[in-house]
Amino acid sequence: MGLCSRCVDIGVGLLLTFIVLRRPWGVTSGFALWGAKFFYAVGIPVETWPYWKWQVAAIERSVFADSTSVMNFGIVLGALIAAGLAGKFNPVKRINLRDAGTAIVGGLMLGYGARLAYGCNIGAYLGGITSGSMHGWLWLVFAFAGSMVGTRVRHLIGMDPAPVTAK
Hints:
mainly alpha
């Protein structure tokens, strides 16, 4: 499958999502909902927070009633199936403390940044560009700059990725 056909596949997916859900494709709002549901379940009154005041019903309903969450589950399941079919499914059984720490800090930074930007590379970038909004293009510029900084930080702490070799 070439790059051009992958772009067409993504475009069709974006279009179908817009037709079915009547909004651009999003990812991170599902994760925010999962966190809110967890806090709500342990007694933290998230329904009083400004962000959640108008969506208390979403916190109280099943996670499967949320279209973004269902799509997120589909992405994870699809990635697992694709890795298995490609013979690349190889979960790491042991992870060192540095790798775990950088994964946690990086994930929290990405999640926080995505919520500040009202979306990740899917909702803010692709959704922004396909809906004709300038914010998608601005997202691209700042994501590129952030990637440059992140790559340098990885180098400074000795976490250079393995070189990619062509097949």
